[in-house]
Automatic annotation (TrEMBL):
Name this protein carries in UniProt: Calponin-homology (CH) domain-containing protein
Residues in Filamin repeats: 222-321
Gene Ontology biological process terms in this record: actin cytoskeleton organization
GO MF entry, a single one: actin filament binding
Domain Calponin-homology (CH): 12-117, 120-223
Keywords: Actin-binding, Repeat
CDD domains, per the entry: CH_FLN-like_rpt2 (cd21184)
Species: Amorphochlora amoebiformis
Lineage: Eukaryota, Sar, Rhizaria, Cercozoa, Chlorarachniophyceae
Coiled coil (residue ranges): none
Matches recorded under SMART domains: CH, IG_FLMN
Amino acid sequence: RGCEAMSVAWYDIQQNTFTRWVNDELKLRGLKVDDVKTDLKDGLMLINLMEIISGKKIGRYNKHPVIIQQKLENLNIALNFMKKEGLEFVNIGAEDIAGGNLRIILGLLWTIILRYEINRNGDNDLLKWIQSKIPEYGIKNFTKNWNDGRALNGLINALRPDLCKDHKSLEKKNKLANATRGIDIADKEMGVDKLILPEEMIHKKVDKHAMMTYLAQFRNLKPVNPASRVRVYGPGVTQGVQDSKAPFYIEKPIDCKGKLEVKVVDKSGKEVKHDFKKAATAPRNIDKYVASYVPKTPGTYKVHVTLDGEHVPGSVFTVIVDAELSVGGAGKILCFFSTTSSNIKQRKDIQGAKLLLQAKKIHLRKDFVPWIPVDILDKKDREKIFLKAGTRTLPIIIVDDKYVGDYDTIRELDENDKLDELLKMDGQKLLTEEEHKQRLMKYNASGDKI
């Protein structure tokens, strides 16, 4: 039992550190992940992460994925980009990430961190670099040599002689205090983000990769000022929908003094009214604020967040506001149904809609998407579909990212000779029925590719 607990703690430390590293990069775009096991599954965070750290644009991808096909497509786009960048990994597929395989996900993140953080300057011998800075500590590893916090304070002093001058007099028994002091000073004075916590550093099973990720920052020091320690994230600084509340959050270390200011500007350059207040709860040693605004017109908005007049990381944020909620269905026909409905009319309507649309041969389109059971969608994706439609009545039929209606609606459109035009079947290159049958064999009952 004890061994199992230590194993979990080791895994937790690595996951926590990698999550913090990802968020440290994503803050430049106002993004944040809470759990890498679940929050990478639609590909958006990985695509944004790779664009930020590579300095390159990936190209077209689905910015509003809600169904598994869209998410797998995004993940494959991200993985293919990584391969083009020269990242080497084996037995890592989009399905592993979408399925929340934590071992695979952490392995992928380590590959990314190794390339873009630890080996950033082409020198892959981090240990040798550390040994050259603090030879007196006899550093031979990235685990137990750091447990008492003394070497960390020594490294800080080697790079900044004005800090931690008393590192040699620190006592080993005060390991938590030593680690806390070093991590806090490095964060405040050197811009070394708290990718690992004091209690994790002193853990006897501290993860080697977690420590390497944290310590590599000392070799890649960035300019530091109070504003650089502020983090902003949330939909209000990434994307929005006309007439819908756009919230975002601001987190500032409690020892980071200065006046926070927020300004939101619409596409015409006019300032938009916003709310700004302190949050009811906040992480340890953090002052957290909640801000929001309601965009009245679609277009590009700019969100400024400053501390004593200095822009925080990511500011000025560019926010694309759409006229209506998107479910990533541009150019597609998406049909949602339930496999568990006990409503007799609803079940008949679902069958009727399937037969009607089959008669229109939409199943033979090359871009055909199998009918999607809402039962197997993530809750937030399912609710997004219902919000898009403005109803929970099934089936829900969406054409070119526009809600069309249910079975009664499409039947009426067909009776009035308007359905064909809406479906835009003219000019479509269709498969044969046999080719379609072969294609269906690649999907399981939930519409996922096998």
